[in-house]
Specification:
The protein is mostly helical and about 190 residues long. Among the domains are: about 40-70, no CATH class; about 75-115, no CATH class; about 135-185. It is about 50% helix and about 10% strand. The chain has helices spanning about 5-20, 65-70, 90-95, 100-115, 115-145, 170-185, and strands spanning about 45, 50-55, 55-60, 150-155, 160. The chain has a three-stranded antiparallel β-sheet with strand order 1-2-3, with no helix packed on it. Helix 5 runs antiparallel to helix 6. The chain starts with 6 loop residues before the first helix and ends with a helix.
Length: about 190
């Protein structure tokens, strides 16, 4: 009876005696993944997600990163470097103008002193109003396009017929007249 000890067991003992505790005793075939080394700032796609390494940490990249960056506030004002931005007024001013409330106040005071504040404020107010009017017009046009359907389904699942009323052309004309009145009342 020649049972003996398997060659792999003998090799394992040799490895233990020589201090090679993690050495292999058998050669096997199988699937192994190729590991890629990534460095700071690399961007890659894996499992349908985009990834990057930022500050040594693997992170996902998503569509809200730009909003998160815009909403974040640094620890100190980039303009004066000595103001901590932990008060809500400083945070609001930083998100609006990119500096703390103290710096915004100094900036406005300097413009008033130079006599440029009124012109700047008028231009700022006008651009803000024009953006508001543009938003209203876009929203109204979207509503008009969605209004073309004559049947609507209620929450209960009933189909209601809402045909009739003013046409889109009439509503659009009335809306344009209202916008014209608002612009004239502003003096434009």
């Amino acid at each position: 009876m020649k049972k003996g000890i398997k060659e792999s067991n003998v090799q394992r003992m040799r490895n233990l005696v020589t201090g090679k505790h993690s050495a292999k005793t058998k050669i096997r075939s199988g699937y192994t993944t190729a590991k890629k080394s990534r460095s700071e700032g690399d961007v890659w796609e894996q499992d349908g997600k985009k990834w990057t390494i930022k500050d040594g940490i693997k992170r996902t990249i998503n569509k809200l990163d730009s909003a998160r960056k815009a909403y974040s506030v640094p620890l100190s004002c980039p303009k004066c470097d000595n103001e901590k931005l932990n008060h809500k007024v400083h945070k609001a001013m930083y998100r609006r103008w990119g500096m703390c409330f103290t710096c915004v106040t100094k900036w406005e005071h300097k413009m008033k002193k130079d006599g440029t504040y009124d012109a700047w404020y008028k231009q700022f107010d006008e651009s803000n109003f024009n953006a508001y009017i543009d938003d209203i017009q876009k929203e109204y046009n979207e509503w008009l396009q969605g209004r073309n359907s004559e049947q609507f389904i209620t929450e209960a699942g009933d189909i209601e017929d809402w045909s009739g009323g003013k046409s889109n052309e009439e509503l659009s004309k009335e809306f344009k007249e209202q916008i014209k009145k608002v612009m004239e009342s502003r003096g434009e």
